[in-house]
C-alpha cells in the first residue's frame, strides 16, 4: 500500500506541492492517526491545472478511439492488479470495511473497462436529405476540458465514473477529490500515469479550501463541462457558477431514498435487502435507504427480524476482518447523526436499537433502529448519512407512493412485493431516477445512474454515460 500513498498533486504530468508550500493532513477516521499530508492548493494551482488540461486537449482530442481505449484498458488492468493495495488505502483514509473497499475498487475499475469499450462506439448519423443537392451528417466530438468534483464517500468509484467517459470521449480532466479522501485519487492518477496516459490529460488538485478551487473549476472559460457528486446545496451553487459560460453540467446530488415493504413481500429478502442498502458504508451513501415504509400487516414481523440482523453487525476498524460498520467520516458527521436521533426521540420516535456514539471510538456510531417515525419529525426530511434506520407504517399503496414522493429529492427508491402488476404500477409511479425492485443493491457500470428533481441531472455509467462529454456537430454538405 505504501507505494500508492502519495503526498503531491498532479499538474501537467508533474507531481507538485502547493505554490505557497501549505499542506493539509489526511487522517484515518478510525483512529485519528495522520496518514500523510497533501498540498493545500488554491486558485493559482487550479488555474494552472485547467491550462494544462486545455493544452493537453489539443493533442488528446486527435487521438483515435482505439488508442484511447487501449490506455483505459491498461489503466483498468493496473487497478485490478493493485486492487488489494487500493482497497487498504481506501479503508485507511475513508473508513469503510476492507471487503466493501475492495468491492468499490473493482466497481470503480469496471467503469474504465466499460468506457474503454464505449470509446469505439461513439457513432454519428447520416440523415436522409430533404434536398437532392445536399447531404446531412452528424459527428460527435469531445466537449473539451472537464472538471470532476468528487465526494469522500466513494473516493475511487466516483472518479472513474467521471474520468473514464471523459477520456474515452477525448476530453481532458481536472479532478478535485473530496477534502477528506484525496489519497485514492492520487493513487489512481499514478496508475494512470503508469498506463501511459499522457501528461496533462489527468490533473489532480488537492485542497482544504474547496470553495476557492471550485470557483475556478466551475467558472473558468476554458472548462466546458463540470461533473459533480455531492450535496444538493453545493450542486445548486455549481449550477449557478457554470451558467455564466453556459457549460455542460452533470450533477449527482442528495437523496432521501424510500424503501417500501408491501404486505405480500418476502420478508427475509426484504430484511436482507434493507440491511445492505442501509448499512453499507455505515449509511454514508447517496442511494442509502433513508425511510423504510413497512405495511402495517407485516410491520411487527419485519421489525423483529430486522432488529435481529442489524444487532449482529460488527462495528470497528475496517481493516480488522469481520467488521461490517466502520467510522463516520469526521466529527461533524457524528454530531449531525446524533443530533437527528436525539431530536427524533424527543418528537416521539421509539428507539429499538442503538442510538448513541459507540464505545469503539468517537467517530463510530451504533447501528440504530428508530420505529414509529412520522412525517412530522425532522428526521423524516433529512438525508441521514449514518447507520440509522427510520421505520414508518403504512396501509395503502397510493398513500405510501404519495409519501415516498413527498420530497424534493429523487435519486433512488426501493420496494419489495411479489405482485407482478404492482411491480410495474409502483415502478412507474415513483418519482426517482433509479428503482430497486426486490433488490437492495442497484449500482453497476452497465446501467445509468442518476436522479430527478433536486437529486441532479445527467446520467453516469452505461451507454448513456458518455453523452455529456460529447458535442453533436451537424454537417450540411452541398453536392
From TrEMBL:
**Residue numbers annotated as active site:** 252
* Coiled-coil segments on the chain, per record: none
Q: Which InterPro entries match?
A: Ald_DH/histidinol_DH, Ald_DH_C, Ald_DH_CS_CYS, Ald_DH_CS_GLU, Ald_DH_N, Aldehyde_DH_dom, Aldehyde_DH_Superfamily, Succ_semiAld_DH
The EC number(s) attached to this protein equal 1.2.1.16
- Top-level taxon: Bacteria
Q: Which GO terms describe its molecular function?
A: succinate-semialdehyde dehydrogenase (NAD+) activity
Q: Which Pfam families match?
A: Aldedh (PF00171)
Q: Which UniProt keywords apply?
A: Oxidoreductase
Query: For this chain's UniProt record, which GO biological process terms are given?
Result: gamma-aminobutyric acid catabolic process
Q: Residue limits of the Aldehyde dehydrogenase domain?
A: 15-474
Family membership:
Belongs to the aldehyde dehydrogenase family.
Protein name stated in the entry: Succinate-semialdehyde dehydrogenase
Its ancestry begins with: Bacteria, Pseudomonadati, Pseudomonadota, Gammaproteobacteria, Vibrionales
Q: Give the gene that encodes this protein.
A: gabD
Amino acid at each position: 500500500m505504501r507505494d500508492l500513498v502519495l503526498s503531491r498533486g498532479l499538474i501537467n504530468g508533474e507531481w507538485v506541492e502547493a505554490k505557497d508550500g501549505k499542506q493539509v493532513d489526511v487522517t484515518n477516521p478510525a483512529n485519528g492517526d495522520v496518514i500523510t499530508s497533501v498540498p493545500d492548493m488554491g486558485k493559482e494551482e487550479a488555474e494552472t491545472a485547467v491550462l494544462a488540461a486545455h493544452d493537453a486537449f489539443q493533442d488528446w482530442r486527435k487521438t483515435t478511439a482505439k488508442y484511447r481505449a487501449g490506455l483505459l484498458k491498461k489503466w483498468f488492468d493496473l487497478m485490478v492488479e493493485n486492487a488489494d493495495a487500493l482497497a487498504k488505502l481506501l479503508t485507511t483514509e475513508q473508513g469503510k470495511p476492507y471487503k466493501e473497499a475492495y468491492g468499490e475498487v473493482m466497481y470503480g475499475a469496471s467503469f474504465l473497462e466499460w468506457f474503454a469499450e464505449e470509446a469505439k462506439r461513439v457513432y454519428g448519423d447520416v440523415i436522409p436529405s430533404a434536398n437532392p443537392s445536399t447531404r446531412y451528417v452528424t459527428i460527435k466530438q469531445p466537449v473539451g476540458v472537464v472538471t470532476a468534483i468528487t465526494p469522500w464517500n466513494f473516493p475511487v468509484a466516483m472518479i472513474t465514473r467521471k474520468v473514464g467517459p471523459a477520456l474515452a470521449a477525448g476530453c481532458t480532466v481536472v479532478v478535485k477529490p473530496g477534502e477528506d479522501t484525496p489519497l485514492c485519487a492520487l493513487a489512481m492518477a499514478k496508475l494512470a500515469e503508469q498506463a501511459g496516459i499522457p501528461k496533462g490529460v489527468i490533473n489532480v488538485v488537492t485542497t482544504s479550501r474547496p470553495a476557492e478551487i471550485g470557483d475556478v473549476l466551475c467558472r473558468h472559460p476554458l472548462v466546458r463541462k463540470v461533473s459533480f457528486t455531492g450535496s444538493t446545496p453545493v450542486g445548486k451553487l455549481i449550477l449557478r457558477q457554470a451558467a455564466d459560460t453556459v457549460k455542460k453540467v452533470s450533477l449527482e446530488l442528495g437523496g432521501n431514498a424510500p424503501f417500501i415493504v408491501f404486505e405480500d413481500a418476502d420478508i427475509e429478502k426484504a430484511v436482507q435487502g434493507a440491511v445492505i442498502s442501509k448499512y453499507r458504508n455505515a449509511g454514508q451513501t447517496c442511494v442509502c435507504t433513508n425511510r423504510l415504509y413497512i405495511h402495517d400487516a407485516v410491520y411487527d414481523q419485519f421489525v423483529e427480524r430486522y432488529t435481529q440482523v442489524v444487532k449482529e453487525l460488527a462495528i470497528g476498524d475496517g481493516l480488522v476482518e469481520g467488521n461490517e460498520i466502520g467510522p463516520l467520516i469526521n466529527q461533524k458527521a457524528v454530531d449531525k447523526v446524533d443530533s437527528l436521533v436525539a431530536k427524533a426521540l424527543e418528537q416521539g420516535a421509539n428507539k429499538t436499537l442503538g442510538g448513541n456514539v459507540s464505545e469503539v471510538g468517537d467517530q463510530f456510531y451504533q447501528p440504530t433502529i428508530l420505529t414509529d417515525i412520522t412525517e412530522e419529525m425532522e428526521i423524516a426530511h433529512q438525508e441521514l448519512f449514518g447507520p440509522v434506520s427510520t421505520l414508518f407504517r403504512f396501509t395503502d399503496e397510493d398513500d405510501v407512493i404519495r409519501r415516498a414522493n413527498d420530497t424534493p429529492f429523487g435519486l433512488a427508491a426501493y420496494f419489495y412485493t411479489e405482485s407482478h402488476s404492482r411491480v410495474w404500477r409502483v415502478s412507474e409511479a415513483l418519482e426517482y431516477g433509479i428503482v430497486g425492485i426486490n433488490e437492495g443493491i442497484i449500482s453497476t457500470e452497465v446501467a445509468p445512474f442518476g436522479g430527478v428533481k433536486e437529486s441532479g441531472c445527467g446520467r453516469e455509467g452505461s451507454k448513456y454515460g458518455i453523452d455529456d462529454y460529447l458535442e453533436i456537430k451537424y454537417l450540411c454538405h452541398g453536392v
